[in-house]
Structures are given as C-alpha cells and as structure tokens.
Amino acid sequence: MTQTKPSLLIVEDNELNRDILKEILQNEYRLFLAENGMEGLRLLRQHSADIGLILLDLEMPIMNGYDVLKAVRLDPELIRIPIVIITANDSIEEEVRCLKLGARDFIRKPFNSTVAKLRIKSLINMQKSVDTLSKVEIDAETDVYTFSAFLYYAKELLRNNPRTSYTLSITHIKGFRGMRSLLGEEAMEYVKKEAAFLRDCMPAGSVCGRFFLERFIVLSPMLPYGKEDRMEIYKDLSRKISANTNAKIKIGVLENVDREKDLTSLIEQANAALNSIQDLYHTDICFVEPDLIKQLENRYQIEREMDNALKQGQFKIYFQPKHRSDDGMLIGAEALLRWIHPELGFISPAVFIPVFEQTGFIVDVDIYAWEEVCRCQRKWTDDGLNVVPISVNTSRFDYTVGDFHEKLLEPIARHGVPNNLLHIEVTESLLAELTKEALATLHSLRDKGIKIELDDFGTGYSSPQALVELPIDIVKLDMSFVRKLDDPREQQLMKGCVFLFKSLNLESVAEGVETEETRRMIADFGIDCIQGYYFSKPLPAEEFEEYLRCHSWC
Ligand code: C2E
Ligand code: CA
Ligand code: CA
Predict the structure, then answer these.
(1) How distant, in Å, are the alpha carbons of 141, 199, 244 from that of 185?
(2) Rounded to the nearest whole angstrom, what is the distance from the C-alpha of residue 195 to the centroid of ligand 1?
(3) What residues flank ion ligand 3 with Cβ within 5 A?
(4) What is this structure's pTM?
(5) pLDDT tens digits, residue range 284-301?
(6) Among all ligands shown, which has an atom nearest to the Cα of 349?
(7) Which positions ≥6 away from 147 have C-beta within 8 Å?
(8) For residue 334, how far is its CA from the centre of ligand 2 (angstroms)?
(9) C-alpha angle 145/151/153, rounded to 5°?
(10) How many helical (H) and strand (E) elements, i.e. helices and strands, does the chain have?
C-alpha cells in the first residue's frame, strides 16, 4: 500500500522565505504555495479535505495573515486545520493576538530547519488523531454531524466568535412517524433529502447536526434583517425544503443564542417551539418567545421537585361534592389533587398533570391519591359519618403499568374499604391505545363493584363509541359542554346525548354547574347529578368531613 504524503499550505509573500520552506519540507510533504491571504484561502477551500496544516505569514499584500485566521475560524470546514504562524517578530502582544485568533504555534525567521520540521510533524500527528475521531462524528446516513459532535463544534463556534449573534434552528418532517410506519425504510429518503438541502443552503459559518431520527439542528449567524423579514426568510426556507423533499417541514427557531446558558437547554427551547406547532396545519415556523421559556422553566422546576414533594406531603387531596340534580341530595365526591408548594404556593393541576403524564410520575401520584381516599373513607366510616362514594381520577398512562390493578386493590384491602365507596374516572383518551390488559383491569374492577366514570365527555374528542367500548357506568359531561347550553342547537345535542345515556343504562353527571339557572336546565334535561361551584368548590379533607356531617340524612 502506498502511503501518500501529508499536504501543507504555505502562505507567504516573500519568495525567498517560500523557497527556503520548500527546500526544508518538500521531501516529507506535498506542498501548496500561495503568495497572499486571498490566494491561500482559495487553495484552502479547494483542498480543505487534503491540507493537514497551514504555515501562515502575517504581513502580506491583498489579504494579511490576521484576516486569514479570522476567515478560517468562521468556516466549520476549515476550523480543524492547525495554523502555524511564520514570524520575524517576537512581540508577546502579537503572539497573544494570533493565539486568540486560533493559531496553534509559531516558527521564527530565520528558519531553523530541525525546529520547524519537529513542530510541523507533532501538530500534523495530533490533528490526524483528531480527524480519525471526527470520522465517527459524522452521521453515516445523512453526512451531517452526530448530535454529540454538533454540540462540540457548536460550542467551538460560539466560543471563537464572541461578537457574532447566533440562531439555533431545528427542522422536522411533519408526521414522520406515520410515514415511517407506512413506508418503512423508504421514509429515510425524505430525511436524507432534508439533510442534503440543509447542507447545501446553510449560510457560511454554520454547523449542522442530526437531532433524533428526523430532526436536524443548525447553528448559524443570525440574519441581519428585521424580525418580520427574518420570519419570512424562515417561511421561505421551510417551503423550499418542503418542495425539495416532498414532505412538510416545520422549524423551531431560537435567536440571539445566550452564551451564558447551557447549549442543551437552549436546544430544548428551540425544540419546544417546534413541538408547540406540531398540530397546527397552517403554522410551520415558531420563534422561541419569553412565554415559552417561562413554561419550560416551570416544567423543569416541576420535574426537579416532584419526587420530593410527594415524599414531603406537599400533595393534598381535595374533595368536590356531587349532588343529585332534582332533590339536591349529596351522592358522592371527586378527589382532586392539589400541590401546595412551600415557595410557589398553590400550583394548578392543569400545570403539573401534563408534566407528570409525560414523565410517568402520574402513576405514583394517582396511586397516592387512591391510597389517601381509601384512608379517608376508612376514617370517616370509623367516625360514624354518612360516607358517599368518592371517584378518583386515573390517567391512561396508569394502565400501561403491569401491576396497576394490584396497586389499586392492595390499599382497599389494607384499609378495609367497601368497593362500592370507590369510583374510578377514566378519560376517553384511554380508548386510543386500549390494550387487552387495560380493558381487563377495568372489567375486573367493575366486577368487584367499583363504578367506572367516563370523564370529560363533550370536549370535542368524544365519540359515542367510547360509551359502548369502555366498561362504564357513569358519564361526566365536561363543563365546556355545559357552558354552551344557551345555544338552542347545543340543547338539542344535549337532549340527544341524554337519550343515548338512558338507552345504554348509564348515569350522567354535569360538571362546572355554577348557577341556579344552569342547575334547573340540567335537571330538566334529565341529567342525574351535578358537580360544580353551585354546590361547592373542591374542599380540603377536614372541610369535606364537615360537609359530610352537614349533609348527612340521618
Ligand atoms: P377534571 O377531572 O375534569 O376535574 C374537574 C375540574 O373542574 C377540577 O379542576 C375542578 O376544580 C373544576 N371545577 C369543578 N366545578 C367547577 C365549576 O363550577 N366551575 C369551574 N370554573 N371549575 C370547576 P382541577 O381540580 O383544577 O383539575 C383539573 C384537572 O386535573 C382535572 O379535570 C383532572 O383531569 C386533573 N386531575 C386533578 N387531580 C387529578 C389526579 O389525582 N389524577 C389525575 N390523573 N388527574 C387529576
Ligand atoms: Ca375528573
Ligand atoms: Ca372532567
């Protein structure tokens, strides 16, 4: 096997110096020679893959050595090539300036051939091992950096160009998962085209990496136009990539990258912007705005603190009474989770439940709520109160845990609570991925006398199919449905629903009833029960205990 000589580029305007260097180095290296910076850069861009080191003079006509250093530093293709400065000067200021601009070493004039050869050899060897490493940093499928290599080069780019403002953008093919299950490996062709387009059209001084299967991330100098124009440019980019790949491309954009912040958290912001437009058909671009950052920060705080909060008893169960709609009799309550944070105070379930669902922590919390309800039912029974069934919310994620069924049964047995004092609320979203195991869990609980309630009926995703396919006893009409009842057409719909419930032998509960007028209307429609501020807000355990006492029929 023939070993090719490593290549060097010599950029030096003085002919004599060029000749001397040629003399010293030509046996061991293949040489490219340039008389000024401009010529040097041209050769460099032409042979960037071959050139292993640059010998660079500082004072030259047309383009001097400092400008070459700056240009190389801005170009991700060239930045890896070590630069050795040829100098006659031994001023410390000059040395510092060159090192700051990315120079790696110095050779002084007049040349000492042994020193020059040794310095060059050691730098070239060092670079070779870095290059070998960087080969595995390139994603074989798409020819852009792998994510970890992207992080490395993006940080280098930011560090080396402290005065440039940068933009992080993440591109994504809409509906890629669906395409993948439909087309299999063929779907990868879209991803490859997306990467090829990005590689070709990225502005100079950008780096691109692969981020998950079908997402790409680009760090590029910020566009120098007004916000609206920048938005238009990104829209245009999305249209162009879409046209090139035949797929719909969405982009999340974070401008003015903050160097003080950790790069991965900034990437997460751009990714969150992208995720926020996933389901919006007409929106393909989303810029990170302060609101989104705030949401993300809240999310991190929740994730960081939720485990401890559970251990320290910061979660409390509140109880919201349910009454019969005709005679107002108390017939049950719903258990609702509250997070009373020591610093932030009350945090709404609307904020923390989605995070718990995404992290899987919801299972622990729902089991905790169940345990608390069992404990309260035992206590209230022992205290001689007239207890009513309490329904506990479950999330569809609970049913993906193998022993969820046992986890529910164990506290019932331990506290000795009659099964008919417990209800379970499920949402229709469970239907979307209803497994045999989940269905068996619901059937088994129901067979034991635990009633199943279908929550949030009428939220827009409801289908009458859920009423038939899920083993349920009670339907809860969502408050958004109840709120629309002054519209005569909604009233007709409600009448139809009530007819359907009765014919399927299902009880019904209306949520969010706040006024006497709505209560009367609900009762006239034939809906069995009411839960809402009209009767009571959700109450802490001690207050609900009092409520039970006051509403007791004995
Ligand atoms: P949901 O199950 O639909 O609960 C009813 C929500 O409506 C409760 O909000 C309740 O406070 C509120 N509400 C009841 N009556 C009225 C009314 O008359 N007017 C108004 N404006 N609101 C009323 P909350 O407690 O904020 O809970 C929000 C959601 O969080 C719940 O909606 C439920 O989906 C979820 N959630 C709460 N606790 C748990 C839990 O322990 N586990 C699970 N998986 N989800 C829970
Ligand atoms: Ca509920
Ligand atoms: Ca509900």
Answers:
(1) 12, 22, 19
(2) 45
(3) 455-456
(4) 0.66
(5) 999 999 888 888 888 889
(6) 1
(7) 209, 210, 211, 217
(8) 7
(9) 70
(10) 21, 20
